[in-house]
Amino acid sequence: MEFIPKFDQQGLIPAIVQDANTRQVLMLAYMNLQSLNKTLETRQTWFWSRSRKELWHKGDTSGNTQQVVEIYFDCDSDTLLVLVDPAGPACHTGKTSCFHNLLLKQDCEPESKNEN
Amino acid sequence: MEFIPKFDQQGLIPAIVQDANTRQVLMLAYMNLQSLNKTLETRQTWFWSRSRKELWHKGDTSGNTQQVVEIYFDCDSDTLLVLVDPAGPACHTGKTSCFHNLLLKQDCEPESKNEN
After folding, report:
1. Which residues of B touch A103 (CB under 8 A)?
2. Mutation to test the B interface, candidates A103, A109, A113, most B Cβ within 10 Å
């Protein structure tokens, strides 16, 4: 299947970043065509920062780059799954994953607390 | 940390769905407030179908519902990670995951082909 990425109206496509070894989901960020091409060329993750409105090489300031192992696209070509070998934590808080806040756990009432 | 979901301009928040057992990433879909509440209430995944513009109970027609095991939100509260116990394949193609198309593999040239 040929990949013709479906960018949204802002020219972006969401990219799920997953640790290739532990299978932990690390973060979700957005790529435009330029950052996707940089990712393919350099084999490290590049995104488009929606807040800073600039190209964002993950780990450029923190050193926590993400080496790309595999990239998949989904059945309607509007989302990417990027498996990486991370040099350090994905989250700016220093946690391994940005998804460290538990909202609901099976057989419990909905809650909202930090997971340690 | 209290969860105040950051919905986008369309009132949606992306939800990554991951198999709680195998850790495979299954799909990405979008929730509005109503589908998020239905998910929390029923402990099965509900989304907002952007193409059909309607509330979408995953598995309603296919039978492949997704039992919610855990839900996490990320550091800026604009993405959900939903760990599920799926009753069947997530993809409408019958594949386990919607991410079955390989775009790039480490140490290979970028390519675009179906993964078996």
Report:
1. 3, 71-73, 80
2. A103
Residue B5, chain A, CB below 8 Å: the answer is no
Per-residue model confidence as pLDDT tens digits over A26-45: 999 999 999 999 999 999 99
Question: Does A98 touch chain B if contact means CB atoms closer than 8 Å?
Answer: yes
B67 class by beta-carbon count within 10 Å (0-12 exposed, 13-18 middle, 19+ buried)? middle
pTM across the whole model: 0.93
- Can you give the length of chain B in residues? 116
Q: For residue B3, which of A102, A109, A26, A50 has the smallest C-alpha distance?
A: A102
| Token code pair at residue B25 | 């990433």
> Which of A28, A32, A29 has its CA nearest to residue A12?
A32
Q: Which of B62-66, B69-73, B108-112 has the lowest mean pLDDT?
A: B108-112
CB A31 within 8 A of CB A10: no
CB spacing of B75 vs A16 below 8 angstroms: no
Q: Is the pLDDT of residue A116 over 50?
A: no
Predicted confidence at residue A41, as pLDDT, reads 97
